[in-house]
Amino acid sequence: MVTQAIAAMARGGVADAVAERPRTVPELAATTGLDEDAFRRVLRALAALGIFRVDDDGLVSNTPSSEYLRSDVGGSVRWIAQSFAGDHYRVWEYAAEAFEQGGAVAERALGESYFDWLAHHPAEAEIFNRAMAAGSAVRFEALVERAWSDELVVDIGGGTGGLLAALLGRHTGLRGIVVDLPHSAAAAEARLAEAGIADRCTFVSGDFFAEVPAGGDVYVLSQILHDWDDEAATRILRTCRAAAEPSSGLLILDAVLPEGDGAHLAKLLDLHMLVLHGGRERTEAEWRVLLRAGGFELERAEVTGAFPVIEARPLASDAETD
Ligand SMILES: C[S@@+](CC[C@H](N)C(=O)[O-])C[C@H]1O[C@@H](n2cnc3c(N)ncnc32)[C@H](O)[C@@H]1O
Fold first, then answer.
1. Ligand 1 atom closest to 136 (CA)
2. In this structure, what CATH number is given to the domain that contains residue 43?
3. Average per-residue pLDDT in the chain?
4. Which atom of ligand 1 is nearest to the CA of 129?
């Protein structure tokens, strides 16, 4: 219920509309195209959860929570809310089967794996890519303060280039390559041009199970390995290892699951990865084992920042383990 209610507000751009000035329910219902009575009831339910506020004069405004539904805030959830209530929601209908079988059920719901399905559904792919780009604004914060020099950064599965556009915008000596599936090419090239970095950053269509560009100083895997089980994640790492120089660095932006029973968002994201992709979130010990299997040595897992960064170095080939 809450997922669908939030998505209705996200689709209608309600948080953007009331960010300009508080508005009335009839005015908002008209601009969002929603039934006025239904809109009022959705809003009432959400306001009770701290998402939007309706004052005594009937004027709607944002709360700290609904601010995140705006398009233009860092870490905006306006688009991921729509994926959660749309294609992801359809897949969750089969969650019981995912838990019984221990694997992804996207094919049951959508007829093919999630990323294959997105390639054939441009409207949903655009929403998903916008969601990832909004999230990469947060992930950028975890990378920006590093001691960057004039390096070539290869963002594997970099979507439409949001992370590199932000990073190269801040560090003008950096060069970049975004690698992703062909259906992301047009949006990525437009974003890189819009960011004014097309002369330093290119988009390469590719399959990270087959080949990634060689010679990168730093390889980035942001929100990639958690989409895959250990066997597939190892194959991605091995593709990176084959392209990397002994001196290359690997930066993984993914959760580091804490041990124990404490609350952590990644424990729920882990279930989402299981249901949607057959993937998983990992503890530091699991990252260490996975990285060795893929030809890398874990150097550091930074779990204190806003977004964890896992740093690794290539293993000398004779030290690799299978
Ligand atoms: C969860 S998104 C992460 C996007 C981005 N790295 C970020 O942090 O926002 C996973 C990305 O992997 C890409 N992808 C999936 N399968 C791929 C493959 N076989 N080769 C290259 N990219 C792939 C998807 O298109 C998508 O952009």
1. 9
2. 1.10.10.10
3. 95
4. 27
Virtual CA dihedral for 226, 9, 98, 132, nearest 10 degrees? -20
Ligand 1 contacts (CB < 6 A) are 115, 132, 135-136, 139, 157-159, 163, 180-181, 184, 206-209, 222-224, 227
For residues 138 and 44, state if they share a domain.
no
Q: Is pLDDT of 318 > 60?
A: no
pLDDT category of residue 5 using cuts at 50, 70 and 90: very high
The pLDDT value given to residue 302: 83
Task: Give the total number of structural domains in the chain.
Answer: 2
Q: What is the pLDDT of residues 64-111, one digit of tens each?
A: 999 999 999 988 999 999 999 999 999 999 999 999 999 999 999 999
Q: Which domain holds residue 59?
A: 2-70
Exactly one of 121, 171, 226, 277 is catalytic; which is it?
226
Pocket test for ligand 1, best of 227, 237, 253 (most atoms within 8 A of CB): 227
Q: Which two tokens stand for residue 307?
A: 């977004």
Asked whether residue 10 is assigned to any structural domain, the reply reads yes
Q: What percent of the chain has pLDDT over 90?
A: 91
On whether both 23 and 130 belong to a single domain, the answer is: no
SS3 291: helix
Q: What is the CATH number of the domain that holds 300?
A: 3.40.50.150
Domain match, 90 and 185 both: yes
Is 120 annotated in the active site? Answer: no
CA 226 to chain centre: 10
Residues 16 and 151 in one domain: no
Q: Which of 70, 96, 118 is the last residue of a domain?
A: 70
Q: Whose CA is nearest to atom 16 of ligand 1?
A: 115
